[in-house]
Amino acid sequence: MNRHYTIKLYCPDKPGVVAAVSQFLAQHGGSITESSQHSDLVCGDFFMRVEVDADTLPYASVSELEKAFSPIAEQFDMTWQVADSAEKKRMVILVSKYDHCLSDILYRWRNQDFEFDIPCVISNHPDLRSFVEWHGIPYFDIDMKSNKAAAFDKIEALYHEHHGDLMVLARFMQILPEAMCERLFGQVINIHHSFLPSFVGAKPYHQAYSRGVKLIGATCHYVTQELDAGPIIDQDVIRVDHSHSVEDMVRLGKDVEKNVLARGLRYHVEDRVLIRENKTVVFDR
Asked: Whole domain around residue 39: which residue ranges?
């Protein structure tokens, strides 16, 4: 894929936003390769995402494009961001002993299913070290038992040392400190093994079994201070019935989990997600 810039924004919904953005790009020779818009009639906001061929613009960097675009952003009171497809997102993965989501992410990374880098994997167990290091990726085993606060400080330090853009909780099974969630808002994605807001917290498959549900699912969401309540990026479900045990649900759920997480990560990495309060607008193509 050719290098492109992505402009994503939201602002109060009023006439002229699409025209202003389009005219700005046209005046500078920009060739739009993809464009999506959404008007939220309840909150009165307008959301927009535009991809433009970088080679057709006279700007060599994101900062140059931001400087040129900022007057329009100010005019329409936009919350906005510009991304360069040439700058791959750096995805730091946190995992425990469950490896199905990690394995799927590594497979997609190895086969370039979508563009991202993995500077390191962090775990609270040593079990997956050889598997991760076989891929040539550094692996850090952090002791979470003796001093959990210090362990999370180390995790956050490793994230910054490796210049992470995104922290992925690939069934990490640990609750991040509230202060850490606040500092890294919009940078931490979790896969929760239930169809939120149902069955938050621990052992959601056991909770689902106890309720005799006919659908189980998984939810990919941004992490916030409130447990399993952050903005949802993607979800999916699978049917179950009275004959399925908890173990059956766990087995069936693994496929849903890894697929939902992969879609959510793709949307984030491709700058297709806009967060507005506790909801998201996801411009899938």
From this structure: 4-84
